[in-house]
Design goal:
heterodimer; A: 114 residues; mainly beta; 6-stranded mixed sheet; 0% helix; 62% strand; B: 114 residues; 7-stranded mixed sheet; 4-stranded antiparallel sheet
């Protein structure tokens, strides 16, 4: 079964600290993996995308890693800010029947406290 | 939100009544999607469209229908709303087929079925 599992479900950190969010997937065949940020009451916004051959991708203070062998990805947030408080969603794209199907994780809810 | 609007943004309705949600885009993207988001679940695809009058079912399409008569508009109809359809509904668009590029999401519609 194609699944994307994220951990932890929720996380609280202090402003200025770093954190790492995890994503494990069983989607096959694999096409690419995206991390989205979803602020409360808004739609998800793409942060990074990685294909099979990429193992690191950065977007400002966000750095995503991908290990296609172990089917794991992580999103590292450096020097967190209050505005980083949001849900972070891992989305894996797999090739099925001629087009890529998107499998969404349930997300990690991050709260950054002052 | 990448030129995507959803209406209404909030709706309360009663069981058994029909409900139509509208998604409007100004990006002229070919592909449009309807998702629902529920606590503890990842975003789940209801229906998608790959062109005017061309639509297909997603993984949770029962109880929903869609129509797309113009490139810019994608309607989601709940023929007879049930309490299990209480959810947040997101519209998304993409220029290329699913998974080949980032999907851009609208702001969401929060639906409560009493």
């Amino acid at each position: 079964k194609n699944q994307v599992e994220q951990s932890p479900q929720s996380l609280i950190i202090l402003e200025g600290k770093n954190c790492t969010l995890q994503c494990n997937y069983t989607v096959s065949p694999f096409s690419n993996l995206r991390w989205y940020k979803q602020d409360t009451g808004r739609g998800p916004v793409s942060l990074t995308i990685m294909t099979f051959s990429e193992n690191t991708k950065s977007n400002g203070r966000y750095t995503a890693t991908l290990d296609a062998d172990t089917k794991q990805s992580s999103l590292h947030i450096t020097a967190s800010q209050l505005s980083d408080s949001a849900s972070y969603i891992c989305v894996v794209s797999g090739g099925f029947g001629g087009y890529n199907k998107l499998i969404f994780g349930a997300g990690t809810r991050l709260a950054v406290h002052p | 939100d990448a030129g995507i609007t959803q209406s209404p943004r909030h709706k309360v309705t009663e069981t058994g009544t029909p409900v139509t949600l509208r998604c409007h885009q100004t990006e002229n993207h070919r592909y449009m999607y309807w998702y629902r988001q529920d606590p503890g679940h990842g975003l789940r695809l209801i229906h998608y469209s790959y062109g005017v009058k061309d639509t297909d079912k997603g993984e949770v399409s029962d109880g929903y229908s869609v129509s797309r008569s113009k490139t810019e508009d994608f309607l989601l109809t709940l023929e007879s709303a049930t309490s299990s359809q209480t959810s947040v509904y997101f519209c998304a668009i993409s220029e290329f087929p699913p998974g080949q590029e980032t999907q851009y999401f609208g702001p969401g519609t929060r639906l409560l079925v009493l």
